[in-house]
Amino acid sequence: MKLLKTLLVCISVLLFFDGYSQSLQNQLEKYDPYVKELNQGIAVLIQQNGKQKLANSGNYNFNEHTVFNIGSATKKMTAILILQEAEKGNLKLSDTIGTYLQAIKNVNGNLTIESLLRHRTGLGEIVGKNIEKEFYEKKDSFYNSDFLTNIPEGNPDKVGKYQYCNTNYILLGHILERVTDKSYFDLLKERIFVPCKMTESYPYVSKKLPNLAPPTNRQKDISSYLDYRFFANYAYAAGSVASTLHDMVKFYNHLFEENTLLNTSSLEKLIDFDDADYGLGMMKFKNGYVGHGGNNIGYAYREYYNPTNKNLILLFSNSRIIPFGKMLKEELFNFVEGKKGNVAFNQNIASDYKSTIGSYLFDSHGMKMEMEILEQNKHLYFSAQGAQVILISKEKNKLYNGSFGVELEINSKDPNELIFRQNGLETTIKRIKS
Q1: Mean pLDDT (the chain, rounded)
Q2: What is the CATH number of domain 68-336?
Q3: Dihedral sign (CA 164, 319, 333, 43)
Q4: Per CATH, which fold does 349-433 belong to?
Q5: What is the phi/psi pair of residue 156, to 5°?
Q6: What residues does each domain of the chain span?
Q7: Per-residue pLDDT reduced to its tens digit, 59-101
Q8: Residue 418: its H or E element
Q9: Which of 30, 85, 358, 414 has a 20 to 30 Å separation from 149 between CA atoms?
């Protein structure tokens, strides 16, 4: 009898796990045809009540062991390494840049380490302005140059004010190397990957990494353009790390639950958020969640961890933009918190919204540009300023793109006009060509 009860309990637990996993997969299934059309893949891992479940969508069967670039999520690791040095007494957050680095053009040596961590330096951006151009050119002269000599002029008026800038964390990487007399990449391995047992993580992306997700850009596989120097030399301490969903779960569990990386005081500093909801390499999100996502050529990653209930949401895509990112994020939060919010998509969008196809003029808020709605492979796309994104419809007379939050509503009074909405902005765009 006792054995029978045990078997029944085991079976019920397995059924619960399977149902939980299936319902998560169901959340992603409706995105599948659209993600496939974009030649991308998405993987999601959720940790809830100590249980972990995975789901995926798109052309690639990504799982928790698929390797990808975490991009700017590297920054929190850089911040942790800085805090570890502070714990050792080797530096103070109030120390100036000039204490450790020789004079650098366009860098005020009196700026503090904490101002770098919090993006309050007003420094010019060294990474990102021409990121796509640099990725494709793969010039030896570029990757072998001293990037610190190329920091552009900053904005002194922004000193003390939040302005996200990769240059801050690149400088922090160099400060770490000066203080420890070790390479930044060795520090990552010795101080973070090894103690957290992150056996599938690497200091930077290389095309030789096992299980590496093939990067895509503009719907094309760009694996042939991969060059480790883009991540190691260029993104460096601001965005170099490669990891997996499986390892990032380990990272968060070790950071917040096992105190492997920082003492309690340092951990409090890491998530001491300012008025911009930015701590030390960490961001504050709704409902008590924290984390730091990242975008790079070929990869996008998001993470949301709740220190109170230990819930964790991780997702990545093998493109610079996560398809329907805002919508997917909202659905995943609803899923973890047990709220209903599963929306359905119109499967006949190309035929039902054929009348919207054409070119439109956006002329509002000091901006003037041409926008277009076009059909490809029975899908509708929205094109503006060189970017083309896929559209869905989740309610009558409205088209939507979940990546940028663009909503287009058919004007009932004039079929040649669409009501354009994005991030609180609302205006009317007029058709100029069918």
Answers
A1: 91
A2: 3.40.710.10
A3: negative
A4: Lipocalin (2.40.128)
A5: -55, -25
A6: 68-336, 349-433
A7: 999 999 999 999 999 999 999 999 999 999 999 999 999 999 9
A8: strand 417-422
A9: 85
